Amino acid sequence: MRHSWFNLFALLLIALLATACVPPTPVPVAGPAATSSVPPTEAPTAIPAVTSTPVTPPPAYATQEAALQATIVARATASPFPTAGPATVQTGQPASASTQRDGLSFQVRLPKNTYLAGEGGQAKVSLRNDGQETVFVGGEGEHLGQLVLLDEQGHEPAPWPWPPMILPGFPYLRELAPGRMVTETLTFQVPPVEQATGHSYVLWAETRFSCPHPGHLEGPDNLWLHLETGPIPLRVTLPNPTQRLVAELEADRDGWRLRVTDVTGQVPPGPLWGFREVVSSNTASAGPLQDTTDGTWSGAWDDYMRQDDGQICLRVWVAAPGYVTAAITQTVPGEGDARRLFGAWESPTRQTFASLETAQAALDFPLYRPDQLPAGAALDVVQVEIRTHAERSWIDVYQSYRLPEDAWLELTQMVTTGRYASAGWGQARYAPEARLVTVGQTAGYAIQRFDWWVLDWKCDDVGLELRAPVQALSLENLLAIATGVKSPEGTCPPAPTATPGLSSPPPPPTPTETSHHEQHPKNGDIMVCWLGKREATLCTSNGRDGIIAMLWGRAAEDEEWI
After folding, report:
1. Mean pLDDT per segment of 10 residues, for the chain of length 562 residues?
2. Is 446 helix (H, G, I), strand (E, B) or coil?
3. DSSP state, residue 405
């Protein structure tokens, strides 16, 4: 049926006028995700007319949305914990690890498992849908997934040669139909000698996926589930002087040129891969180096950089099998300090103590301690890490305990100067598949990630987190240790309870509260920042027709949009 623009306008005007005649119905604020509990069926008690108040029932949309969210959560949690079956690991040349969950097969393959300290590596990651239902792959950033290197204590090494620059871009989103597979080659970096000495490493791969939305099967339901495979043990050896790449970088107002060789001046047999990042006073760009056979790359600056008199700063790293990765930075002279736009935060201040007593003497807040530990556990070290920004500070105190059979237990105490919704919570609190547990008189959240238990809870405003290998301790063991964690006064005031990670994010603070809460702004997640009385929100929504990003803000005083 076809309508003229005049008829359509008339119909719309009639509908608007009809709507305007109906009093507005207040919509309740959305609360936590609905559960499957059934309300009481007994008859309600009559209320005297003199004290009764009119009650507006929730609109049909709110009721349907609550039921929909309950369906999504119930479907997501139908799979047993942990999130995937045991991985099948093959070591040697080549090496691989694979696992399955909900009809998905996830695999990572390495050409070898022996690397030099400082060497870069490549791994092929594949995800296949052997189930009966289409799923959506959220990946990590712009990629199918990510490779994670962990040491013997479950820690990721510091980024090397530098933390990557964060630029806005479209997040990874792929529809994966039954019988289809998606693959990608990802890279990782073994720490250099000064970082790797005394450590052992394993490699993991992880990704995220989502089921179709019950009401819109062509898009995801935006409840992203975790899928990981590993660990693949890596053997790290020391390089000799001939196993280092040599990089020569030239840059001027027109462009740049890079040449990479070995120490004899010959081009390595390859393959060679790398990444470049460039910043100026008004623009920034980043991207991988294209494949080359002669070890040279070059490029011209864009018009914005050439027309500006400011500094241009370029940094590049290049990797090859059997060689230590080469990293180099070059700056084109000009006005300003472009290097700061790489976004590197100041390194935190770190202090190390051999006992809890010496650590407590250096702190101006009570140090929480476990009053019961597994048999044979002994304190190894206490590390205090302090980060500051503007007038705020974040202090993390790590207590590392060595357990029998080369296992580790770590207690982290998180103290912040600001009061905001997510302050003091660790990584388990907002994980979609976190278990809601009880620690003493307060709620806790537990997840299993990379063969480690992670348990988060709070004592009043103090955030606490326990980590231990799954093979060394059970979740019940970890809960018993957590219940015994107390301040020097022997107390642990209960913190306000909250719903698990599958529910909505924490409520915003009051307008006068300086606060912020962050989640990765992709695939329907939300990032909210409260700075003084201002609020800014970034959210993205993915669908079959692409990605929609919205940025809006609100200022309580001057209504300035940010």
Report:
1. 39 42 37 36 37 51 67 64 76 94 93 97 97 92 95 94 86 95 97 95 95 86 90 97 96 94 93 94 88 91 81 94 96 84 74 96 93 93 89 90 94 86 84 88 91 93 94 95 90 57 36 34 32 31 30 31 26
2. strand
3. T
